[in-house]
Structure formats: C-alpha cells, structure tokens
Write a structure and sequence with these properties.
The protein is built from 14 helices and 7 strands. By secondary structure, it is α/β, with parallel strands linked by helices. Among the domains are: 87 residues, Conserved hypothetical protein from pyrococcus furiosus pfu- 392566-001, ParB domain; 50 residues; 51 residues, no CATH class. Keywords: Chromosome partition, DNA-binding.
Length: 303
C-alpha cells in the first residue's frame, strides 16, 4: 500500500500537467491568434473573425451574381483566397475579396482561406482600390472614381498611379476626364448605356449644350463611336459668323455632312451641299467634261 501512494501521486501529477498543456486557454488563444499557414502562405480563418473593409470602393453587389458565386463555392470551394489584415487577437479586417467573403457566408462556410497582410489604413485603401480596378466587370466611371481616390486619398501622382495599375499616364488621364462630364452623361456611363469610346469623344466637346445634344442623339439613334467622333469633328470646322447667318447646331451639321457624302457617292463625284439654320442653301455638282455632264444628267434622268 505504501508503494502505491507515491505512484498514484506521480501519475496524477503527470496527468495534471498534460491536461494543463492540452486544455490551456493560453494554448487555445495562441492557436487562434496564429492560424495554421500552409506552404502557399494561406491560412483558414473563421468568417466570424473577419470584419468588412470600410475602404471598400464598391458599395453595391448584384444579389443574383452573389447567389451564383455562393453556389459555385458550395460545389468547388474557394479557388482564390481573400486578403485580410490582422487587427487584434482573433480579429481580422478584409482588404480584398468581399464578394467571395459575402458569398461564402451565403454558402454556409464557417472558415475561408486568406492571405494575412500587415497594412495601415492608407495601404488598406490603396490595395482595395487597385484590386477593385483590376476587376473585369467595372464600368469606366467606377475606374475613374477609383483613380481619383488613389490620387487624392493615397497621395499619389499620376505617374505613380500609372505604375500601380499598369497603365500609361494618357490612359489614366482619359479616365479622370470622365469625371468632368455632366451628371446625365456620367449616369449613362455608369449604367453602361455609353461606352468608354463614346465618352472619350464627348469629352472633347467644350460647349455643354453641344455635348448634351450629341449625347442625346447618340442614345436615341444608338450611334457608333465613329459616328459620334464625326459629330464632334464637325464642331471643330469653321462656322459662319452670326452676322452672315445663324450657325447650325452640331447634330444638324452632322446630318448635312452625311447627306453630302451620300450625294457624292450617288453621283460619283464631289458634291457641295450647304444649308443654314433656316434650311436654305444650295447643292453644287461639278463636272469635268461634256461626257461627265451627260453621265450626271443620265443619273438625274434628264436625258
């Protein structure tokens, strides 16, 4: 009996230390604070430990598209990990991948694979904006706003911005110029009723009334980018002085130029068509010889 007492005490002591090491809150906390990272630098983090990014450039996510992504995640899992930054023990904040984060919640996941980064608020904003810009389904205006935020809130210059997003300075500037367009044109770009090509042509129109007139015609007649560029180009041609005759608006001038081209094609020679705002004008059809004149008269069915 005397031999059993120390043995039982030793066994109890050993089991007690093991229990402390196994069930220690400190060990659990350490496990939570430092999630297991695989060889690619990705850790599985509980969704409940992640808060959304307050600097997220996108404020609207299509519900139907989100449901489709959630279904894909249920079947295939997360293909591309999200990126987070560590705030505190068991607390993370999303840097990029909010659609995947929200869709994972819809899919019923408890944890999500993530890259853990160290970043301050400005770096958070910059990473979120750049990741957002690299998405394929952004419209031109969303890209323009993201560029503007990178310049103003991240204190970048246009050259630095171009390096960050992989674009030259001219391309960056073309997007930024969209923000100077009237609200109605910006709304059309946002709603994808107007392409970047159309918008770039309209940017070059200095007079807002002319700009809006061409914009309205573009939507009503579904004009191609080339036709809009032709309308804009017509504005740069010399206009008659107000003393001579009232000037034509750009839409009317475009229509006259288009008709002039049709007449030239019909008669096979250069045709001059002039008209004023009162719809008065003249048509000139030159000929180079008597045979050329006869050809034109035949077209007119006069001989």
């Amino acid at each position: 009996m005397a031999d059993q007492k120390p043995t039982r005490k030793k066994s109890a002591l050993g089991r007690g230390l093991g229990a402390l090491l196994e069930d220690s809150p400190a060990k659990e906390s350490k496990k939570d604070i430092l999630p297991e990272v695989n060889k690619t630098g990705v850790a599985d983090i509980l969704l409940s430990q992640i808060s959304v990014n307050p600097f997220q450039p996108r404020t609207h996510f299509d519900k139907e598209a989100l449901e489709e992504l959630a279904e894909s995640i249920r079947v295939q899992g997360i293909i591309q990990p999200i990126t987070v930054r560590k705030l505190d023990a068991n607390e993370y904040q999303l840097i990029s991948g909010e659609r995947r984060f929200q869709a994972s919640k819809l899919a019923g996941l408890e944890a999500i694979p993530a890259y853990v980064r160290t970043a301050n608020d400005q770096q958070m904003l910059e990473m979120a904006l750049i990741e957002n810009i690299q998405r394929e389904n952004l419209n031109a205006l969303e890209i323009a706003h993201s560029y503007q935020r990178l310049l103003s809130e991240c204190d970048l210059k246009q050259e630095q911005l171009g390096d960050r997003v992989g674009k030259n300075r001219t391309t960056v500037n073309n997007y930024l110029r969209l923000l100077k367009l009237p609200p109605s044109i910006q709304a059309a770009i946002k709603e994808q009723k107007l392409s970047m090509g159309h918008a770039r042509a309209l940017i070059n129109v200095e007079d807002i009334e002319d700009q809006l007139a061409i914009f309205k015609k573009t939507l009503e007649e579904e004009l191609s980018v080339r036709k809009v560029e032709a309308l804009v180009k017509a504005l740069s041609e010399p206009r008659p002085s107000k003393a001579e005759t009232p000037s034509l608006d750009p839409v009317r001038k475009y229509e006259i130029n288009k008709l002039q081209q049709k007449l030239a094609s019909h008669f096979g020679t250069k045709v001059s068509l002039k008209a004023n705002a009162k719809n008065k004008g003249e048509i000139k059809i030159p000929f180079t010889s008597s045979s050329d004149l006869n050809r034109i008269l035949e077209i007119l069915e006069l001989i």
